[in-house]
């Protein structure tokens, strides 16, 4: 593995992409430490020490929200805008047509997503600032609220631009990597804090060991879910080309158990955090009831979270997975055993994919929810730990490693990860 990592820096183009990604992540983390003026930092810190939904909100902002920095909203506005555009593509024919127009259509969709990001960022910025004002942490006038909201909106647009640049010139998905960096950077602090609590006797050693065991089990489950696949056997008929016989070989179609990856988790979390932010604009019993209902520990939130993970798993799988294309590519002599070529093959693949997606989405929801419930029952409030964070970290890490492997294999290098073949030897990816 060490040799493979060394090989990544032997390729000038791959080395440039990795260094560019690291530099962009450094800029993002630097912006997360630039405070927005006018906020009582000490009072804000005491508020976030209570945990709950605030810790969950701060998770996606990478700690920027607890500091109320210029990047306090992180990538949430961009994700919300992306969700709206993808949903509109299903119900609005003009947008769906635009997506199928190739590069020019894709550029238009991206531009509309950027406009939507600005709108969502402005709404959320006003909601967050008004919420802090209601709590007495922000004491400025309405002009000051507008100024702070404009600053936060500008920060959200800058984060969006940084994520897009990372996707184009770096390694991996830029937006996912920004969330990944925000989660990973807080792990050392959480470990030090937990160890200190154990030393002081404020946390039971058995509770800590149980939490570690849950974390290891969740990581193992995430890896199995991300790497799991159903293989449909494919047989290629023999055919004569000139004087030579071709075909007669067996292969398979790999159908991933979790085709959507970490997208359902990110989408579901972002959608459910939006009502909580908007409710902060208002005072009274209704606003408090909404915030309580959309707290990560509430039964309403957990139920909606599971339902939306399953929904977005199906939705995003339908967007990226096209059985028609696979069926068309098999018309050169390939067929699934026992299934006629053409439309029956397309229907069969769609049927199998639907069953796989159901199992994968339920497993994804269980991994996302169960650790949060378990750590809540054990009263672990030293840091936010949940399946959501673990799934994002594991999923983004595996996706990035696979992209680096793809770059290496294109240039005849070994991949970073290796698997064992049936004979026990190492099988290159």
Can you walk through the features of this model?
This protein is mostly helical and 429 residues long. It is 68% helix and 7% strand. The strands form three sheets. It has a three-stranded antiparallel beta sheet. The chain has a two-stranded antiparallel ribbon with strand order 2-3. A two-stranded antiparallel ribbon has the order 6-7. Strand 2 and strand 3 form a beta hairpin. The longest helix has 35 residues, at 343-377. It is globular and about 85 Å long. Mean pLDDT is 78; it is low at 419-429.
Percent helix = 55-70%
Low-confidence stretches: 419-429
Strand order, sheet with most strands: 4-1-5
Proportion of beta-strand residues: 5-15%
Number of strands: 7
Major beta sheet summary: 3 strands, antiparallel
User: What is the N-to-C succession of helices and strands?
Assistant: HHHHHHHHHHHHEEEEHHHHEHHEE
| Radius of gyration over all CA atoms, rounded | 24 Å
User: Which word captures the global form?
Assistant: globular
Oligomer: single chain
- Supply the helix-strand structural class: mainly alpha
> What's the rounded overall pLDDT mean?
78
Distance between the termini: 13 Å
- Contiguous helical run count: 18
């Amino acid at each position: 593995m060490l040799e493979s990592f060394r090989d990544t820096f032997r390729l000038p183009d791959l080395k440039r992409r990795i260094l560019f990604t690291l530099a962009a992540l450094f800029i993002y983390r630097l912006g997360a430490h630039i405070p927005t003026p006018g906020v009582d930092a000490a009072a804000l810190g005491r508020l976030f020490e209570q945990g709950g939904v605030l810790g969950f909100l701060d998770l996606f902002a990478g700690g920027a929200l607890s500091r109320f920095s210029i990047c306090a909203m992180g990538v949430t506005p961009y994700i919300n805008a992306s969700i709206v555009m993808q949903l509109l593509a299903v119900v609005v024919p003009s947008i769906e047509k635009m997506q199928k127009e190739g590069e020019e259509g894709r550029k238009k969709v991206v531009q509309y997503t950027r406009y939507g990001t600005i709108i969502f960022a402005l709404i959320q910025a006003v909601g967050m600032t008004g919420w802090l004002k209601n709590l007495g942490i922000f004491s400025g006038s309405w002009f000051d609220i507008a100024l702070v909201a404009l600053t936060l909106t500008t920060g959200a647009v800058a984060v969006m631009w940084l994520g897009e640049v990372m996707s184009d010139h770096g390694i991996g998905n830029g937006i996912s990597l920004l969330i990944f960096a925000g989660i990973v950077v807080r792990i050392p602090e959480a470990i030090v804090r937990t160890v200190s609590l154990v030393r002081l006797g404020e946390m039971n050693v058995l509770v800590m060991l149980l939490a570690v065991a849950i974390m290891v089990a969740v990581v193992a489950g995430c890896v199995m879910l991300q790497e799991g696949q159903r293989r449909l056997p494919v047989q290629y008929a023999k055919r004569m080309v000139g004087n030579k016989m071709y075909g007669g070989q067996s292969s398979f179609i790999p159908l991933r158990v979790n085709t959507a990856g970490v997208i359902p988790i990110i989408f579901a979390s972002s959608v459910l955090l939006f009502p909580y932010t908007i409710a902060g604009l208002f005072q009274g019993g209704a606003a408090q009831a909404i915030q309580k209902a959309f707290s990560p520990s509430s039964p309403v939130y957990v139920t909606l979270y599971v339902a939306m993970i399953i929904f977005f798993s199906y939705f995003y799988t339908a967007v990226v997975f096209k059985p028609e294309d696979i069926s068309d590519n098999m018309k050169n002599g390939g067929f699934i055993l026992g299934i006629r070529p053409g439309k029956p093959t397309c229907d069969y693949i769609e049927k199998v994919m639907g069953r796989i997606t159901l199992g994968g989405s339920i497993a994804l929801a269980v991994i996302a929810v169960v650790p949060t419930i378990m750590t809540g029952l054990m009263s672990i409030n030293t840091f936010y730990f949940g399946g959501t964070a673990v799934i994002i970290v594991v999923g983004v890490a595996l996706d990035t490693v696979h992209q680096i492997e793809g770059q290496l294999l294109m240039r005849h290098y070994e991949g970073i990860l290796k698997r064992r073949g049936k004979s026990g030897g190492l099988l290159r990816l």
